[in-house]
Specification:
Layout (H helix, E strand, L loop, with lengths): L23 E3 L5 H4 L5 E4 L8 E5 L8 H7 L23 H4 L3 H5 L18 E4 L3 E2 L1 H6 L1 E6 L11 E5 L11 E12 L6 E18 L2 E9 L8 E4 L4 E4 L8 E8 L12 E4 L12 E7 L15 H7 L6 E12 L4 E8 L8 E4 L10
Antiparallel strand pairs: 1-3, 2-3, 4-12, 5-9, 6-7, 6-11, 7-10, 8-9, 8-11, 9-10, 13-14, 13-18, 14-17, 15-16, 15-18, 16-17
Length: 367
């Protein structure tokens, strides 16, 4: 499709001629959940594996549309298109994130949202587990499980151990501490600066006694194996409920990476780190809009594949407004970095994407 062409919606029951001879249709990441109910999904390439595009498979042979044959044989009745299938968007302030500067939201007022892109309402409360986010300061102040009286390598419930801290023990007898294990640094994708450490919580201990900078502890609960050398830090809830709250500051930042470092693209329900924290005015429950700017054909997922073409080259340097492509809810905050959940996305998100919080609520915040 070119930008100087027009789009027409066929009448109910009318099938465009070109649909009779196509064996695949391109789909986006946000459409996977709906498309996979009816169509086999595949990734195809036209340049020896340098770039791939997602498609819904309609047939195996060239020019074969098996779904059309199924309908023609009367094996499946197509759903009638009536005005009763129109979707009404919820009147919630959080929809500002997909309403501001986004033409799709206006079109969705009078048509079915097939992929569920826009017809949604953010949950009033979100139950989450701790992301294991630890700031550099918290890392320096943590202790080490340096020894145990037990005659075994792996420690379990009710075993005793000794935790040593560089300074005074940040607890008193009867308090709980978390046993955790560093998993890797959280590095900014642009500056290369280490913002925090990602960790995995492996257990909970109770402080029995304190001798100077050493605490004798007893393991109360384990999530994974506990070993000598694991780190210890002050206890905090590992499961919590986060409710959206009003944004109180204008903040611009970037997505750093996903909680799962193996992901290169992020969709709904993915937890991500952003490079703004409490020092920037970010609080638990705040919402960020994910924003992008530029022509769609210049996107990294498109450039180099058969869909970009000459029109993509001509539009790559066009001066166009920002568009909102996602909504994030902040669930954990440190001084310079926060953890957020992707509540909604209409494009595949990735590290380096800009995020924006508006005190007025235009970034999805409540008023």
């Amino acid at each position: 499709m070119q930008k100087n062409q027009k789009v027409r919606l066929p009448a109910p029951g009318v099938l465009p001629e070109f649909c009779r001879t196509i064996n695949a249709v391109p789909i986006s990441y946000s459409e996977f959940g709906v498309a996979c109910r009816d169509y086999p999904l595949a990734f195809v390439t036209t340049d020896d594996g340098k770039n791939f595009a997602a498609v819904g498979v309609l047939g195996v042979a060239g020019g074969e549309n098996l779904f059309l044959k199924i309908f023609a044989a009367g094996l499946i009745e197509p759903l009638p298109l009536t005005t009763e299938t129109n979707v009404s968007l919820p009147t919630t302030n959080d929809l500002d994130v997909v309403g501001r500067n986004v033409r799709e939201s206006q079109a969705a007022q009078s048509m079915v949202s097939v992929s569920g892109k826009l017809a949604f309402a953010p949950p009033p409360v979100l139950s989450v587990r701790s992301s294991g986010l630890v700031s550099p300061e918290e890392m320096r102040e943590s202790g080490t499980l340096e020894a145990s009286f037990e005659e075994k390598q792996m420690l379990a419930n009710y075993d005793t151990a000794y935790a040593r801290f560089e300074d005074e023990v940040p607890a008193k007898p009867g308090d709980k501490l978390l046993i955790f294990r560093p998993e890797g640094p959280i590095v900014h994708p642009v500056s290369g600066r280490t913002l925090a450490r990602q960790t995995k919580t492996v257990g909970v201990v109770k402080v029995l006694s304190i001798q100077g900078r050493q605490a004798t502890v007893q393991i109360e609960r384990t999530f994974e194996e506990v070993e000598r050398g694991d780190r210890v830090r002050p206890w905090e809830p590992q499961e919590k409920r986060v409710a959206p709250r009003a944004n109180t500051a204008d903040v611009l930042g970037r997505i750093v990476q996903a909680l799962n470092p193996g992901l290169s693209e992020y969709g709904e329900a993915t937890e991500v780190f952003i490079d703004r924290g409490s020092a920037d005015g970010v609080q638990e429950g705040n919402t960020f809009a994910v924003i992008r700017q530029g022509d769609g054909l210049s996107n990294a997922m498109v450039v180099g594949s058969f869909t970009a073409g000459r029109q993509g080259e001509l539009s790559a340097k066009a001066d166009v407004p920002e568009e909102n492509v996602g909504l994030l809810l902040v669930i954990d905050v440190r001084d310079r970095v926060s953890t957020a959940v992707v509540i909604k996305s209409i494009r595949e998100l990735s590290a380096g994407d800009f995020v924006e919080m508006r005190a007025s609520g235009s970034g999805g915040g409540l008023q």
